[in-house]
Amino acid sequence: MSSEAFEHAAAGALLLCRAEPDVVEPAARLLREQMLLAPAGAEWSVLVPEGKPWAHGGEPVDRVLTGWATALAVGSNWPVLALWWDADRSGCTLAAGFRRTVEYVWLANGTPVGEDEALRTFATRLGLDPVLDMQSLEALGRPDTESDARARLLGLLAVLARAGVTLPSGLGPGEPADRLCAVARVAPGVREVEWAGWRDAVRAELDVVEQGPLGPWLRGPRARALAVAQMATALPLLVWAARQRSGGWATAGTLLLVHGSLGLAYDRVRAAEAGAGQG
Hints:
Strand order of the largest sheet: 6-5-4-1-3-2-7
Number of helices: 10
Structural class: alpha+beta
Helix content: 40-55%
Largest sheet: 7 strands, antiparallel
Shape: globular
Order of helices and strands: HEHEEHEEEHHHHEHHH
């Protein structure tokens, strides 16, 4: 087996979302990717990709997962942490709303190649303990000849466990994608996330968002300003994604454009409904 084929065979990924499955599912549908969704502890969910676009589209697994995590986090009030690995490296990428994504990487032998500032950002955005958890995260950024890349991700999960993360039994880093899917299919509470078309997916997402903290941003001047900002961000991102041939970032750009267009339309529809009700 060639080194490239081995890398594709060994690659795997998980998406940890700090929200319940009922909240995550509508947003996950918009990725238009087949995934398995399962509870992963109190207020946490895990998405397991069924497909392996990094094995077919020429993009490395970390770039694909960064695009997905960014797309999921756009317009939501919960962060997304992507865990990924292949034959050469492992790493994690944190996306939270419109904030800059943060990444940390380890080589296969466990050598850290990230910045300490990224680990501090993880702790802050995930609401981890600034003393106890930060000490554990800092240890993951120091050389350790006895910890390989998989051990580093397991150490990260141990820190996240104190924040409520509990992955289904048998689901963990270092496993190939096919193995992860097989385990996820029999996990308690698992559900399949499938693309049902823009209309149904967006309607379901709006129902969830309108009932949450972001509900006020769906109506009025703030909603219109946010929609315009999303569309203005989406257009250059789509151009960049096309030049880089990045499917993950193209998904994020498309989702931003849809959110913005939908935000403008939604505000007008709701205003019209309110006017009809008063009449």
